[in-house]
Design brief:
One of its GO terms (biological process) is cysteine biosynthetic process via cystathionine. Its cofactor is pyridoxal 5'-phosphate. Belongs to the trans-sulfuration enzymes family. The chain is α/β, with parallel strands linked by helices and 385 residues long. It folds into 2 domains: 241 residues, Type I PLP-dependent aspartate aminotransferase-like (Major domain) (Aspartate Aminotransferase, domain 2, 3-Layer(aba) Sandwich); 123 residues, Alpha-Beta Complex (Aspartate Aminotransferase, domain 1), CATH 3.90.1150. The chain contains 11 helices and 11 strands. The strands form 2 sheets. A 7-stranded mixed beta sheet has the order 1-7-6-5-4-2-3, with helices on both faces. The protein binds pyridoxal-5'-phosphate (PLP). The site of pyridoxal-5'-phosphate (PLP) has 15 residues, from helix 3.
Length: 385
């Protein structure tokens, strides 16, 4: 670890907002900025033997180092055995774990109801001679397909279904069989859930969503504590070159300072919107892990600190869903989630997700909750005509 990655005295024991504001900041140096600006460099001065920390821009960059330190502090407060590697996108991070840990003849368990690009990953893994088994997120079906697997991949809460699985329980079962466990922590963010503390070997996420929260950058990361496994992930990043630009890395670090503020507002509003949808006279099959009546609530409340900003519900038909989206004034009809501006989409338009035609994924932003609830209810009313 190089000096510039040392932080100002550690952030253990502090509140989430304080940790988010201070995460990854270097020791103060007179006349230097508190958060150093992006370092644009393809290479670094390097006389003599090529030793680190900074040699070539595909391998390391000081702006990544600060961001990686920040994410480590959020994913595993107070631990110094956790390493984070940042990537160009969430998919780059997911692929880095899958393709660096698995080789021909290995078996992996993937969620059958996870992020919509996973079926493409599945096809690529199979093309390389890796056996892929699948299990749904909820209901512990993973336990039945773990024997002989090298890696268990779980996504909790799942996107877009918002099901949840018991991370501790699955980790225990996987480790007893010698399998590593990776958790996609995108939806929860490290302020909502800390998979490494629940025993997982990797916490992997798209930073494109609530972590950075402004809908203006793509980013991914892998946090892990097994040195050998993380060395393989690092090697994969070097081979594939799926690296974030310094500007994106710096914007991400800057955005993390407000993560707690954004999550507090957005997640509280998500609960308020979920309650309003639940109380609507039609049964909209509302899902939100923080709603005490939700099937995910029990396990979620045992392993999560926050329940995210995504709410889902189902309108009776595709036409009704399209009319609803069209009638919204404060919520953009757009994909992705986690940003300060609310978005909603008819998820079935992409194909690939096992959802009904009228299924809506709504990402609650930082607008005032009463404005959002009024907009959503008026669009429901409008679209019912
Ligand atoms: C968006 C998303 C990804 C992929 O992230 P990108 O940054 O778009 O590559 C992976 N997993 C989940 C759960 C996601 O929502």
């Amino acid at each position: 670890m190089n000096d510039s990655a040392n932080t100002t005295g550690g952030t253990r024991g502090l509140g989430d907002g304080t940790r988010a504001v201070r995460a990854g900041l270097p020791e103060p140096v007179k006349h230097e900025p508190t958060l150093p600006g992006p370092v644009f460099a393809a290479h670094f001065h390097l006389p003599g033997d090529p030793t680190g920390p900074y040699t070539y821009g595909r391998d390391e960059n000081p702006t990544w180092t600060h961001l990686e330190q920040a994410i480590s502090e959020l994913e595993a407060p107070g631990r110094d055995d956790v390493e984070t590697l940042v990537f160009a996108s969430g998919m780059a991070a997911i692929s880095a774990v899958a393709f660096s840990q698995l080789s021909a003849g290995d078996a992996v368990v993937l969620p059958s109801d996870g992020y919509q690009v996973l079926p493409l990953v599945r096809a690529q893994l199979e093309a390389y001679g890796i056996e892929v088994r699948t299990a749904p997120t909820g209901g512990d079906a993973q336990l039945g397909v773990l024997d002989g697997a090298k890696l268990l991949w779980i996504e909790t809460p799942s996107n877009p279904g918002l099901d949840v699985c018991d991370v501790r329980r699955l980790v225990e079962a996987a480790h007893a069989r010698g399998a590593l466990v990776a958790v996609d922590n995108t939806l929860a963010t490290p302020l909502g859930q800390r998979p490494l503390e629940l025993g997982a070997d990797f916490s992997v996420a798209s930073g494109t969503k609530q972590l950075t929260g402004h809908g203006d950058i793509l980013l991914g990361y892998v946090a892990g504590r097994d040195r050998t496994a993380m060395a393989a992930v690092r090697r994969w990043r070097k081979i594939v070159g799926a690296i974030p630009g310094p500007m994106e890395a710096w914007l991400a670090h800057r955005s993390i300072a407000t993560l707690e503020l954004r999550a507090e507002r957005q997640n509280a509003s998500a609960l308020t919107v979920a309650e309003a949808l639940r109380d609507w006279p039609e049964d909209l099959k509302v899902r939100y892990p923080g709603l005490p009546s939700d099937p995910s609530y029990k396990i979620a409340s045992e392993q999560m600190h926050r329940y995210g900003c995504v709410v889902s519900f189902t309108l009776p038909t595709r036409e009704r869903a399209d009319r609803f989206l069209d009638a919204l004034r404060l919520v953009d009809d757009a994909t992705s989630f986690g940003g300060v501006r609310s978005t909603a989409e008819r998820r079935g338009r992409w194909g690939g997700d096992a959802v009904a035609e009228g299924f809506i994924r709504l990402s609650v932003g930082a607008e005032n909750p009463n404005d959002l609830v009024a907009d959503v209810l008026s669009a429901l009313h409008e679209s019912a005509k």
